[in-house]
Fold:
Amino acid sequence: MKRKADPRILIGTYGVVLALVALIAFGWWRYENFLGLFNVMSVLRYNSMFALVALGMCFVIMTGGIDLSVGSTAALGSVAAALASPYGILQGAAAGVGIGLLVGILNGTLVTRLNIMPFIATLATMLAASGSALLMANNQSVSVSYESGFTNLGQGNLWIFPVPAVIAAVAYLFGSLILNFTSTGRTVLAIGGNEEASRLMGLRTDRIKFLTYTASGGLAGLAGVILAAQFGAGQPIEGVGWELFAIASVVVGGTLLTGGVGSVGTTLAGVLLLGILFNVLNFENGMGWISLSAYWQSVIRGAFLLVVVIIQARLMTRRSQAA
Amino acid sequence: MAEGLLLSMRGIEKRFAGIPALSSASLEIAPGEVHALIGQNGAGKSTMIKVLTGYHRRDGGEVLFAGQPFEVGSPHQAQASGISTIYQEINLVPFRSVTENICLGREARRFGLLDWDSMHAEAERLLQTFGIDLDVRRPLMDFNTATQQMVAIARAIGFAARLVIMDEPTSSLDEGEVAMLFKVIRKLKAGGVSVIFVSHKLDELYEVCDRVTIMRDGKTVRSAAISEIDKLDLVSAMLGRDISKAQGHATAFTEGRREAGATVLSASSLAARQAVQDVSFDVARGEIVGFAGLLGAGRTETARLIFGVDRARSGTMKIDGETFAPQKPKEAIRAGLGFVTEDRKLEGIVPELSVAENMTLALLPRISRNGVVSEARQRELVERFIRQLGIKCSGPNQRIRELSGGNQQKVLLARWLATNPKLLILDEPTRGIDVGAKGEIQRLIRELADQGLAVLMISSELEEVVEGADRVFVLREGRTVAELEGEAITEDRVLQAMAHGHSTQTEEVGM
Amino acid sequence: MTQSLSQTPARSRSHFDPFAFLSRYGTLIALLLLILFNLLFTRNFTTLQTLNVNLTQVCTIVIVAVGMTLVIGTGGIDLSVGSIMAISGALAPMIFLGTIMPVSNIAVSVTAAMVAAVLVATLLGLFNGWLVAYFRIQPIVATLVLFIAGRGIAQVLTNGNLQVFRLPEFQWIGLGRPFGIPAQVIIMAVIVLLAAWMLRRTVFGRSILATGGNERAAELAGVPVNGVKLAVYAISGFCAGIAGLIVIAINSASDANLVGMGMELDAIAAVAVGGTLLTGGKATIVGTLIGALTIQLVRYTLLANGVPDAAALVVKAAIIIVAVWLQQQGRVR
Structure:
């Protein structure tokens, strides 16, 4: 009955890491300065917002749920943070994260108390968060205070590392620790694998689900804080499509959308992979051989997602046949 | 008065949507006793258990656990109080490792974090008490059903429970595994743990239980030491009617065997993947052919080959003498086959559709013209079958999920009968159906055969195969190992073949 | 099998059950109440212009939502409709403006443009269906591919440029008024009626619900499950293609960045509010129409009474939640 770990499963799980390494190697081979400090740090800085949103999404998806509200929540968080930024760095950040947590709590309540399907519940809060952001911002972007040092959260450095990237790295470390070494994390996966069974096994499914939505909201709020700090303004209409980009990253990272299987580390790899694709495109255009407009970015990302999901689907069917 | 009892449930009331599911039901369990809880489907056993474990909130009555009033709001609290439950359908998480499935909810921790090493060791230790040795790091879905069931039991026992509830734990276990389970139950008992044992298999109850509580229509009708009550009393208390009637059902199924006609389907040396290695058999007009075998012997898998759900790797099939190799169910249906599957919920009913829509699902091309369904033909057909099979429903438009299990099964039978098939494959046709409806369905199967239908019946109930079938093929590890006919069909011989691969009077199968 | 939510009595003819009643007719009642409210309090509500404004704004949503209803009926979802609208909207002007190749006869070029745009949209839908049916990719992921790539394709096709035109031969689809009724309303009505009839009375409709209700059972009963899935996604693409044409005809311009933006969510909202079960197996086209009209009228009512658009979004969110919650309460388990 004992079997060796199936190599196909390893490819399914870590393929994204391999692809990431390959893409980086390609960039390093082809472009000068691709691995230069400036380029690396700016890629990290820019993608840390998406990384935070994807982390929350990853936990929600592992329970078998989905959170469509993250983009709007980030926009709302950026507005709240910008409005609170004159009072200080901490106040600004707290406002953004706090309002994100509120949206998350609302999502958690709708899903666990009213038993509304996550897709619909978070679709509604997405609209509500977007509307609230516009109302709070009076339909325009809200510039942040430069005196309080709030912009350091987006533009500053810790030694050579961009502050947002450090924040994202810490968040991922925590996320990974929680998933792999706490009962909360294992319960997240158990719920996604079979919610009814988990409930009957005496696991507190509703509480854990509630927590994942709350965390997702808080992380989206944090992404909003960074957004405001990085671009110097709270932007009520930013964040459109972030939720689907985050879902794409999570899926590319090998997390099953049906829940029960997932990893924090490969989600980060998924975010970076999709982010670096864009970076490579820019470099390629810079070479002057071809000129691909920025519009190609989404085409390439879509094509990439297609390849990944087809490979995953193939692996899954083979596996279920083998079992 | 509840002195010395571990559990006392009295006057329990529970209503769903205003309809009483339990009315003044009671259950009393002494420490260290194995207590059988029996009753027909819908008698209220599961509801009673779910009230106890906090899954349902009771509407009335009192529960004392270890002499204390017991108020739990969730399975989690029940577990923390020392009540562990193993449900009938294996309720574990297939994607996760065996260890996680055993240890979730009471993980070992070191410095606040999970201690994987000691969790793996604990899982291995628990499984070894059943004599099972496996890689606990692998996901649960890599193992077969029986192993998964053992994991579920290991999980329940690992919780150091004072009361373990087993809801039909043996339905997916083979004889050896059942024996192992009983050993574990006795071990639990010796350790002072009480067990509530829900089962439909009467022999098992007498083997392992001390007391029995019988429920009917949401009420407790009798509770006694099992030595004081014989099988017939037990059945009649469950059914709430005369024993002679219950026997009448069995005879209706048994009598009326007649000579078989021409061969409808014959298969030789079928093989596909692992589950089916070498299966040969044939079914003729007007006869019921039984497939006996342990779980995983390849019976359902063979049925799926015949019906074109899976494809055979080698071997041949013939229908009415013509070669037959269906690529999908549609082709099998066209060739005159019908397939009532084992799992009604998963592969049978479409819950949101009506009785009529469910019944005509396989018949759509025939009751429509240019893709438009003829309402008149549908109504005429559906009403006829509702009458003929005695399906209890408010009308053709009632949604099928509102029907009882037995009536759903009849609708599914009608779905295939309406296609006027040559051969009907029935996979566990009476599983999970109450005793009354079971007899009715068995009688119906016999009637259909009498009218010339060829029936291939898979059943894990030895009694059903032995008494119901005209011929029996015994499968073992993907091979047909015996063919029994007429007088030769006895429980003894079938069991022998299932266990050893041959019966005392084996007839060579195939050529 | 979620927890037994419903403490409501079984649906019977003798007892009145408010939850079951509201879950069935709640949205319709809300729509009627909204109309009543507007008749009483909104100025100029009873004018033909008001009717036209509301109908034209809701038409494209309804058309897309009809396709979405069928997809959701099979237990799927289609996130790509907005992007497919953008492709269809980008492609048609390229043909009738002669960007791809000049055609002298205006009738020929307009016909070719419309046919080609809708055909491509249908093929893209078919592609979605192919991913879902043959690769067994979850619908939300499978259609996410075109959601992301589709708008990019439209932008690449037009290089992100606005295509402006003034071409009555084409724009009748958005601006024409045969018998005084806007052409798009007629198209919408035809699509709604056809789909509603099809879902109720045909083998295909029954197959959709069986596939969504219990795919394995349907397959075992000989329902061509994969074919059904291919078809519904193709239909969804077809509907999105038509909606894309209508949108650009109304605007006299095609902007690949904006056409169909957020349409997937509007359509899903209409379907959910209309009472179609999002897990599949139970769908209502008329419900979807009522759902879309209700959402539209709420927005109109708020705007007409001086509430800012942003606040209307919040109200819309509340409506979706209340509608879906009521439907759940009404379901007898």
